[in-house]
Amino acid sequence: MSHTMKAVRFHGFGGPEVLRYETATRPEPGAGEVLVRVRAVGLNPPDWYLREGYRMLPPEWRPPVRFPAVPGTDISGVVEAVAEDIDRFSVGDEVYSMVRFPSGLAGDSRAYAEYVSVPASELAPKPAGIDHVRAAGAPMSLLTAWQFMIEPGHDEPNPLQPNRHAPVPIEGRKVLVNGAAGGVGHFAVQLAKWRGAHVIAVASGKHETLLRELGADEFIDYTGTAPENVARDVDLVIDTVGGPNAGRFLRTLKRGGALFPIFPLGFSGADEAGKLGVTISTTQVRSSGAQLEEVGRLLDDGTVRVVIDSTYPLSQARLSHERAAKGHIQGKIVLTVE
Questions:
Q1: Global model pTM greater than 0.85
Q2: Which residues are CB-neighbours of 30 under 8 A, at least 6 positions away?
Q3: How many CB atoms lie within 10 A of CB 255?
Q4: CATH hierarchy code of domain 166-280
Q5: 3-class DSSP state for residue 313?
C-alpha cells in the first residue's frame, strides 16, 4: 500500500484560496488508534477559524499552528487498519468520528484527507441507516447540541466558566433555538422536540418549511421580526449564533430560565442575567465515541435527521469554504472522498 495520500493543507493563514489539494504522508495508527479510510468529511466553523489563524481569539488563546496544517475534525469512513491493542474495531468496519477536539485545535485532527488516524475512544460505528455523507455531517454539530442540552459526558474543567455546564430539564418546557437552520441549530430543534419541548425556531423565512418538518412548533423569521420583541416566557434559549448579541434574548426568558450561547465570546449580559434570575452557561464540545454511539441510534432510526446543504469533492475544499463564507447554510456542508 502506498505511503502517501491526498489531503487538503494550507501553508499559511488566509482565506479559502490558501487551501491546497496535494500529496501528503499517509498516517499510521499509533497505540490506541484506528486508521480510517475517509469517505466523507463534515465542515464546521473551527475549520475556517483555524484556516484564518483564530484571529477572533485573544492572541494568548490562539493555539500554535504547525505548517503545513490540515483542517477538519468530522469524518465517516471505513477502518483500514488497527493498532495491536485495539479489539473493538476491525478492518472493514464503517465508522464515524469527531477527531481530536478540542485537543487538535492547532490542526492535529487532520480530517481533510483520504486517511485519518483516530483514537479508538473517539470512534463509533457509523449508523447503518444513513450514508457516509450524512454521518460525516453529524459529529461536531450533533455532539454540541447533545452536550449542551442532554449530557456533557465528561468532567473536564470548563475553560469558558468556573462551573461545570449543566443541561436543564426541557420536557414540557418552551425552548427557543436561534440560528435554527444551521448545523447545531437543526439538531437542537430535533433534540428539544425528542425530549418533549415546545420548540420555537428562529431563522430566515426560507427555512420555515424544513424547520417545521423537523419539529418546530413556532417559527420566527428574524428578517422581518426581532425574536426578542415577540418571544416571551421561554424556559431555555439555545443561541447557536452567540457572541455579543446573545444578551438580547434575556428579555425572552422567564425567571429561572437559562440562556446557552454556543459561541460565548463577547457576551456581556451576566450582570443583567443575575438581576433577571436567569442562568447563563456554556461549554466546549469534546470528542466522545461513546456519545456518538448513543446519538447514532437516533440517526439510525430517523429520530434525528442530518440535513445536507451541499457537497463538494475533497479536491474542491476551497469552494466549500467559499460556500460557508456566504452564510445562510441549511444544515451541513460535506466533502466527499472517492
A1: yes
A2: 83, 117
A3: 8
A4: 3.40.50.720
A5: strand
Alpha-carbon distance of 256 to 254, in angstroms, equals 6
Cell of 110: 487532520
* CATH architecture of the domain covering 4-139+287-336: Alpha-Beta Complex (3.90)
Reading the block at residue 106, the C-alpha cell is 492547532
- pLDDT per residue over 54-111, tens digit each? 998 889 889 999 999 999 999 999 999 999 999 999 999 999 999 999 999 888 999 9
Q: What gap in Å lies between CA 42 and CA 112, rounded to an integer?
A: 9
Strands 94-98 and 74-82: what pairing?
Answer: antiparallel
Half-sphere exposure of 41 (CA within 13 A, CB side): 33
Q: Which three cell numbers stand for residue 23?
A: 500529496
Give the number of C-alpha atoms closer than 13 A to the C-alpha of residue 39, restricted to the C-beta side: 19
Q: Quote the DSSP letter at residue 112.
A: S
